[in-house]
């Protein structure tokens, strides 16, 4: 029974939520239990509590973003990152309200803002808060501020270590609640776990990846300015993956660099000896793929993701809705299904700009022969003689194609954010159960 419960995705997801709440609140409870808080008044105790919870939530961000497979497999990267953003803002709010409340209730504490004369514990609080403010500002306004992704990621890591490290230093320095040795140890341990996760993610995991390199076997042009990058494991067996999942790719340079990019596998999950990605030339890194010479070393961190039909073994069939480069996970799903001789119905609604832009057009036609696959192309700029679907994937278009018994299928959407939102809303209006709709966002940050 226990085993069964832990296997159910909902039970596992609830388990992690419980663990999160426990870790966030436990240190606070322990801190308050013994010795009991001295009569310093409600607002001061409340302000301190906010500071402790905010700090614990900040430390837990290292766990949430450490790509721990078990946690990731329960929610998917999209939800984890949304949770990361939301809880960071909540923690930020608590950390800011904590001193403001003190300044209001005990006006003499405002002197601590005088950085030159303030004791080191207050200086740590000021510096930690500044690091946190910078962290939040550069993340929310990264694009308007024109900060490229890689430098932002490096600074994000440094600022978060600074914010948490200085926060813990401040809490230990103030000592009101941590004066007892074991309480200091408790918070010190939390900081060390966070530090360990950073070291694991940035040093140990990349070092482990150097033991399992890949070689670029071919770079093949596809329609729509997309390039298939085919990798072969070198000296190991590669990895099996569930079709629809993705991996972080580092090319040529060392995996210790922060230059890794997420890409969905486009090949069959059953063939670890040749892993393919379909990469659209859109920016600094993706535009260089076409020039990558065969034999170039590559590293993969994966597989990750929950955007896969393998989680829905009982589904009667699947509706795949792709826009542009969002076809890559669908391609993997279809190729794998064909190899497995999956006889369930697949409907692919695939939006492209023009007929000539349709990535994998010919491959998809061949798959129609091997699978129960219905292919609906939707063109934004159709040729004159075009009699198929055109324009946008909206409610009317979906009504024409998705099955009457909506709940019998699982729906997978991967496209530009605007199209994903519109399709999600349309499916909702068409009474597709929300639990049957799965989305993969390609724009994480
Ligand atoms: C789960 C997932 C699967 C994806 N699958 C595919 C795929 O199959 N094919 C495909 O062509 N693209 C895919 N992408 C998108 C791809 O990762 C980005 O287009 C690529 O990283 C952009 O890098 P760039 O340097 O060329 O572009 P830039 O012009 O430098 O960046 C464009 C935007 O891409 C994002 N980005 C840039 N670098 C990174 C990075 N290292 N990590 C995460 N995001 C970054 C940022 O939002 C940035 O603003 C996927 C993304 C995700 C999250």
Describe this structure in words.
It is a single chain. The chain is of the alpha/beta class. Helix 3 packs antiparallel against helix 5 and helix 6 packs antiparallel against helix 7. It folds into three domains: 207 residues, no CATH class; 91 residues, Elongation Factor Tu (Ef-tu), domain 3 (Beta Barrel), CATH 2.40.30.10; 131 residues, Rossmann fold. It is built from twelve helices and twelve strands. It has a six-stranded antiparallel beta sheet. The protein has a six-stranded parallel beta sheet with strand order 10-9-8-7-11-12, with helices on both faces. It is elongated. The longest helix has 30 residues. It starts with a helix and ends in a 6-residue tail after the last strand. The protein binds flavin-adenine dinucleotide (FAD). Flavin-adenine dinucleotide binds next to strand 4 and strand 5.
Write the layout of secondary structure elements.
Layout: H1 2-7, H2 9-33, H3 42-64, H4 69-75, H5 77-105, H6 120-140, H7 149-174, H8 181-210, E1 214-222, E2 226-233, E3 246-251, E4 261-264, E5 275-280, E6 297-304, E7 317-323, H9 327-339, E8 346-352, H10 361-370, E9 373-379, E10 389-390, H11 395-401, E11 409-414, H12 417-429, E12 437-439
Parallel strand pairs: 7-8, 7-11, 8-9, 9-10, 11-12
Antiparallel strand pairs: 1-2, 1-6, 2-5, 3-4, 3-6
Helix pairs in contact: 2-3, 3-5, 3-7, 3-8, 5-6, 6-7, 7-8
The structure holds flavin-adenine dinucleotide.
